[in-house]
Amino acid sequence: MTSFHEFIHMGGFAFYVWTSYAIFALVFAWNVFQPLYHQRRVRERLARRSRGSSR
Amino acid sequence: MKRAQRGEVAIPAPTTRRMWTFFHRLASPRYFYELAGKLVPWLGWGTALFLVAGLYGGLWFAPPDYQQGDAYRIIFIHVPAAWMSLFVYVLMAGAGFIGLVWRIKMAEVVAKTCAPLGASFTFLALCTGSLWGKPMWGTYWVWDARLTSELILLFLYLGYIALESAIEDRRTAARASSLLALVGVVNIPIIHYSVEWWHTLHQGPTVFKLGGPSIGLDMLVPLLLMTLAFKLFFFTMLLVRARSEVLEREANSAWVRETVTSQ
């Protein structure tokens, strides 16, 4: 790669290359956020439960 | 004749003993939870580092392929994703087996948390393969051996997840889904050897083959960097998922109550 235009254009294969990398980004992002969100929900639920039972 | 002292043979060498102590402690949910919590940030930063290096190398630094032009750049996600789809399945089935035979809780946790990650890698391998197939073969999909067996792998992962979540009792769920995972192992060599056993559109191996990889170094290095990034990413998110699972399973123990109420 020598120029930004060349990079975006991908020798005419821009659609295939960039769609692949977009799906990759989405799959990875989902695999980061879903477990972190789930972890927070589990912690909150368990915290509520254990506070409720100790009272 | 000198008599062997009692216990002389039975005591293993210190390093072996230490290793087994480590495994025993790792099987304890609390120890696992705490160790995993310390490892996650390191693994996460490692993933980011290899990912940046691999993407730079693959998308910018590496030259276009002399046959495929720039379309070949899909390889840097397609191949690591496909490798991981197999690796994760074997790990999942192995952990399931250990859970089945020795009833080790942490093995059940690992098996369960492998499934969504493995399914993601398989999905990614199928999608990127399809997007690579269109410009190279002229079609998004063919029902050939490699593609079909990889699609079956996705169904195995989805079946595992569905079965596991359909059964209320965690231990019964783990046993049933581990059996399914073990039966599905038969698909793994089929995927691996499909390009050799049958005539297929999919190309044969380029990296792991006799006589060394048939790929230029400036392409091989980014590929290996991306492979490491994928592997680190998998272990990072496996630990994150496993920690939540441990909290849920051990919800009634004192240390979990302390942990969740302290923050």
Supply the helix-strand structural class of chain B: mainly alpha
The largest sheet of chain B is: none
Task: Please state the overall shape of chain A, judged from the principal axes of the Cα atoms.
Answer: rod-shaped
Q: From the alpha carbons, calculate the radius of gyration of chain A and give it in angstroms.
A: 22 Å
How is the biggest beta sheet of chain A arranged?
none
Low-confidence stretches of chain A: none
Annotation, overall tally of beta strands of chain B: 0
Q: From N to C, what is the helix and strand string of chain B? A: HHHHHHHHH
- Helix proportion of chain B: over 70%
N- to C-terminal distance of chain A: 65 Å
Rounded to the nearest angstrom, the distance between the terminal CA atoms of chain B is 65 Å
- Characterize the overall form of chain B: globular
Count of beta strands of chain A: 0
For the residues shown, what is the average pLDDT of chain B? Answer: 91
Number of helices of chain B: 9
Proportion of β residues of chain B?
under 5%
| CA radius of gyration of chain B | 22 Å
Total of helices of chain A: 2
Average pLDDT reading of chain A? 91
- Share of helical residues of chain A: over 70%
Notable traits:
heterodimer, A: 55 residues, mainly alpha, 2 helices, B: 263 residues, 9 helices, globular
Textual characterization of the structure:
The complex is a heterodimer of chains A (55) and B (263). Helices cover 85% and strands 0% of the residues of chain A. Chain A has helices at residues 4-9, 14-54. The mean pLDDT of chain A is 91. Chain B has a domain at 74-203 and 214-256. Chain B has helices at residues 14-26, 29-61, 75-102, 105-137, 145-166, 170-184, 187-197, 217-249, 254-262. Chains A and B meet through helix 2 of A and helix 2, helix 3, helix 4, helix 8 and helix 9 of B.
Quick structural gist:
The complex is a heterodimer of chains A (55) and B (263). Chain A contains 2 helices and no strands. Chain A is mostly helical and 55 residues long.
